[in-house]
Amino acid sequence: MVKATITTLPGDGVGVEVMASAQRVLGAIGTRFGHEFIYHEGLIGGIAIDKTGTALPDETIKLAEQSDAILLGAVGGPKWDNPTAKVRPEQGLLKIRKHFNLFANLRPVKTYPTLVHRAPLRPDLLEGVDLLFVRELTGGLYFGPRKEQEDGDSAYDTMLYSVAEVERVTHVAFRAAQGRKKKVTSVDKANVLAAMRLWRKTVIKVHEDYADVTLEHGLVDSCAMHLLTRPSSFDVILAENMFGDILSDEASVLAGSLGMLPSASIGDGRFGLYEPVHGSAPDIAGMKKANPTGMILSVAMMLRYSLGLEAEATTIELAVEKALADGIVTADLADAKTGTVANTDEFTEAVLTRL
To answer: Which of 235, 245, 289, 305 is catalytic?
Structure first.
């Protein structure tokens, strides 16, 4: 029996709805396997700004510090959509990642046979697509020294990396590849950027410790093309913060919908933050149309990486796969070939009955 404390941060928009799905699935797993999950809910994002004036209150950090893991829904929305505002919902995400030193973001992308027709690519290109992005999360352009406000006619952001920062995330990528198809594609822009030349040199050095893993280098622009022309050729894709953000969102089309993708943000230990890749989707918030798959699969990642519960994680993943195979999908995946169009609660129930 495992007894774990989870900080839940529903956030904004559909984050509240998919978080409810996550807790239903965790409850079922606890009952089946004899585990106990204790939840402490906190504020982050737009709702935190409205209630406390900051995107990440100190109270939320304290709750998370007393937990085994964090589950997060989504942040942001039109109400707070002002890039020049001093306080923005996204600042909560950046701050919590930095506070807990969660430097590696894992984003798996997998195609399901019943959803191949939903991707804007030929079906033959999608056969065997099962890849993992390892995105550096606390450095690079998003965290480098910057001039926050435009000063007249100029503004700047700085891509800054140290050898140590690149080394630690590279080790995560190679270790992940050892348990998969033993291939890492390191993405950079070494032909233009000095920070990326340091990145490539460091990755090559770390590779010396992983003789069983094949390493290839790819420029970010060509990688963006190859993700759509030969996606099955990739296994683990290692990328800088912004490059990883953009490329993994691009790769979401391979799975049919952004709503399908989970993620894990981890550091040196077991503690991690788990969230779907999708945003707060304010246009459908409160309508029970949100796809909870990314959130449910994020729960599976939490069980695997933070709690060491591999069988429980696999059980959830297989239940999701079976629900999809049985033709049950949410509105974002629906078309003329769809069997059953389910709302958020109905899809969650479909997963629960297949656990």
So the answer is: 245
- Catalytic residue status for 268: no
Active site residue 212: no
147 given a catalytic annotation: no
CA angle 249, 241, 196 (to 5 degrees): 120
Instruction: Give me the catalytic one of 110, 182, 183, 249.
Output: 249
- To the query of whether residue 305 is one of the catalytic residues in this protein, the response is no
Span 296-342, pLDDT tens digits:
999 999 999 999 999 999 999 999 999 999 999 999 998 756 667 99
All structural domains of the chain, each given as residue ranges with its CATH number in brackets, are: 1-111+256-355 (3.40.718.10), 120-144+158-255 (3.40.50.2300)
Q: Is 354 exposed, middle or buried (0-12, 13-18, 19+ CB in 10 A)?
A: middle
pTM of the model as a whole: 0.93
Task: Kindly name the residue from 12, 112, 142, 210 that is annotated as catalytic.
Answer: 142
- Distance separating alpha carbons of residues 102 and 116, to the nearest angstrom: 33
Instruction: Provide long-range contacts, Cβ within 8 A and 24+ apart, for 2-5.
Output: 2/35, 2/36, 2/307, 2/309, 3/35, 3/36, 3/38, 4/35, 4/36, 4/37, 4/38, 4/68, 4/69, 4/306, 4/307, 5/37, 5/38, 5/39, 5/40, 5/66, 5/67, 5/68
**pLDDT band at residue 246, thresholds of 50, 70 and 90?**
very high
Is 209 one of the annotated active-site residues of the chain? no
Task: List the catalytic residue out of 221, 268, 283, 326.
Answer: 221
Q: Which of 95, 189, 288, 322 is labelled catalytic?
A: 189
pLDDT tens for 153-177 read 788 889 999 999 999 999 999 999 9
